Amino acid sequence: MTKSLWWLCLVSALVLPSPGLSAPGSPLAATPPMGWNDWYQYGCKVTDAIVRANALAMVQSGMKAVGYTYVNIDDCWQGQRDAEGFIHPNKRFPDMKALGNYIHSLGLKFGIYSSPGPKTCAGYEGSYGHEKQDAETYARWGVDLVKYDWCSASKVYSPDQMRAAYRKMYEAILSTGRPMVFSLCQYGLEAVWRWGASVGGNMWRTTDDIGGGYDRVSLFGFQQNGLGKFAGPGHWNDPDILQIGLGRLNYNEELTQMSLWCLLAAPLLAGNDLTHMTEATREILTNPEVIAVDQDPKGIEGHRVWQEGPLEIWAKPLIHHSVAVGLFNRSLSPLPMTVHFKQVGMPETVRVRDLWARKDLGTFHHTFSAEVPSHGVVLVKLQ
Ligand code: GLA
What we know:
- A hairpin with a 4-residue loop joins strand 15 and strand 16 (about 360-365).
- This protein folds into two domains: about 15-295, Aldolase class I (TIM Barrel), CATH 3.20.20.70; about 305-380, Sandwich (Immunoglobulin-like), CATH 2.60.40.
- The chain has an eight-stranded parallel sheet with strand order 9-8-7-6-5-2-1-10. Strands 11-12-13-18-15-16 form a six-stranded antiparallel sheet, with helices on one face.
- The longest helix has 15 residues, at about 160-175.
- With about 375 residues, the chain is an alpha/beta fold.
- It is globular.
- The chain is built from eleven helices and 18 strands.
- The chain binds alpha-D-galactopyranose (GLA).
- Alpha-D-galactopyranose binds next to loops.
- Alpha-D-galactopyranose binds near residues 149 and 209.
């Protein structure tokens, strides 16, 4: 290799964006993306009016103020392709660009959904063979996030072509020049956490669809242990949308999901009707001290430090030498639990703050104990 060629290689390696990482200086998904997704509440009945109403409610409910930003349309918005192959929305979405403008006018960001296959999971038009055109269309509409759902891609690609299929859309997005969070959805197949970032993923689903009650939420949430080393600023494990406010979880179970998702540094996508939520749901979704655990700038995913049957203790290191600790009781009766500060790498004397109650509990030596409700959690910050 000549000297000038060597220099050229070195300079391009330093200057060109590397797949999986945000462009230098770009804050794309620097902390886990927060927002809303229509799928669990509305499914294929979603409309432009529903999306607008929820976007407005995201502002009016105080969710925007604590960090919720992305308004994501899931499956079922697609209509037909025109003679040149460009995708158009169906009649439930008369004007996507106008919808994007409205979302942006509220200071929020606009998310959309497609599939690397010919059809989406609900049988609508996918991006197969039209990746570049679709990315251009999304850029024209002002899209800020693309959820890319495997679905019928299994009919046209073999599992070993999955990475290339995702990279293809990533490159199409990159070539538009518009930053879009790239959200991989293939249900955790092929250990996606090991390669999701290398194909441009800013987040990737680690699990199948969570839709359900405490059994699903606890199964999916607690099985995330061990995946933390693959996540960090710009690329996150995604155990799926929050089930809070959908009528599937009781109060303590909702606290469990929110606490666990925040300890996991998971994307926080509300899945409920934001225009009609109870005050309890609103408070669970918007507790700023709990959200600060999720959004901690260090971006370290928490992990399980102790387990005894249905009792689990999880910890997440935070900035300023503090640690968030969740004491979870998966059993059917309330039980006392104790965390030893040594278990979470803290000194023998620490200050303890209850994050749900937003209350200082005082200074403790060696241990902190609490009665934890059935299917519930006590979430504290140790400083
Ligand atoms: C799959 C995904 C869901 C949702 C539906 C839409 O099941 O995992 O999150 O997007 O498709 O059809």
